[in-house]
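User: Now give one protein:

AI:
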Amino acid sequence: MAKSSSSASKKQKLDHLDAFRRGFPFVSCSALAAILNKVEQEGVPELHGRKNIKQAVLEKIAAMAGDCGSLLKQLTAVRIDGLSEERHWFTLAVLRTELVQKVEADIGQTLGLILEDMFAQQLWNPVHGIVMKSTDALFVFHWTLHVFLQDGSAQKQTFANRHDIGSRVCMLCKNIFNVRREGDDDDEGKISSRHLTLSSCDLASDSEWLQSWDRLAAKAGTESKARFAMLQQASGWTFSPHALCMSSSNGVLSFVICWAFESWRNHGKTDVWESFAGYLELWQLPGANKQGSLSSLFSADKIKSHRKTGHLKCTASEVLGLLKPLQHYFTTCCLQEEVQPAKASLLAWLHVLELLNDQNQAPLRSRQLLLACEEALEKNAQAGWGPVMRPKFHWTLHLDGCYEKQGFLPACWVLEAARKYGSASSNTIRFDTSLLEEVTAEHLSVMGKEEGFHLRAHLLQPHACTAKLKKSLVQYNVLRQEDECMTSTMTRLKHGAIIKKGDMVLHGNEPACMHLGKHNPMFKHA
């Protein structure tokens, strides 16, 4: 009986030990036994928390260094998206156009050499980074490849893609081709209006897409010049053994806007172009967008040019500026029954532009952009514009897929930001090198300033406020007399947009409760 009781007691102790062991992160049996024996002999240390253990180790390592100082250095790394400020766009190369044009594959080959130097260089590793020094700061740069941001013409030159001038006008689809109709004098390509939804397209996989290039490369040395030119036209590629091969897209609204105006003009409102020009002059646009006058796009000469070419001749930024005026003008003024299909098509495409513009502020719902593009294409066909749609219209069906893959869609109008002019920073003997050195030095100088990166809205070109303004702020207890107060007429918002003094803004959380106000000078105090 005593033996049975002893066996039961030992079993309970073993079960307790096993449960005790499993209640902690894994250690070996030998290690756990050594720990428990040590605790049994010497007791539990008074300080035994995780932070206490870490501190004890650090102090011991520091003591080992003696007079040489600490062996450990603590660094704080903050990852900030600097794309909202153009001055943080780092310049990688400065090359003369005439030099690039002498290279067989043009800028595509040049970009290939730059990428090879960045990612296949034995002297450095982008993961480990490289160290760059300025007079008062030390920088460690790390980099990775994310996305190419270019306009259409740059895409053609860089990635050897013929886009809308090739027979195959969409590299992501296998059944979308350039359509030529009898009696069509227009040199620009057209597409069939039978494929207005993504489900009607035969999508090409990445491997099929690359195999198309490989097949063309295999024919490069075996076919005659005339035959090979036909193969390039059919495949949509411009072949070079040194070229890169990728594809992207942009631009639809310049056509739809012109078609909508012409439709309204043909149904009785003969002065619609001139009327809209006067309407634009009534709009107060944001101060950051006042470099050009939108109403000047509709001068007599410009209207004649727009109608002759069949599309609005303007930049992407100008189309963006026309978004709200066009929506309001056609919604409130275009009431004629015969023009409703054209109006519906234009408003549908403007809605697509709104989604593309708003995706930086709030994530799009699944398939929201795709459904909007498919609806716009359907309304395009209903307005009678199906036979004149360019390949760019089809490319919009792939915007949603790009958004799902990348998590964002870059805006093409950022490419129109003010460029750096090289004449003041270079010499004629070493133009490329001297200019790159000066631009790099400027980049390092900007990055070395603590105020260079901002996580929230901030003032641009701030300066001390007037004594009258400060007195008023002190009077209303906004700040104290000893506080420093800075003011400015411009503010850059968190997402990169700039607002200026006098801009009209809507403020409020609910659309039904919006209030109109005017942006006044901003200030900060310290």
Q: What stands out?
A: The chain is about 45% helix and 5% strand.
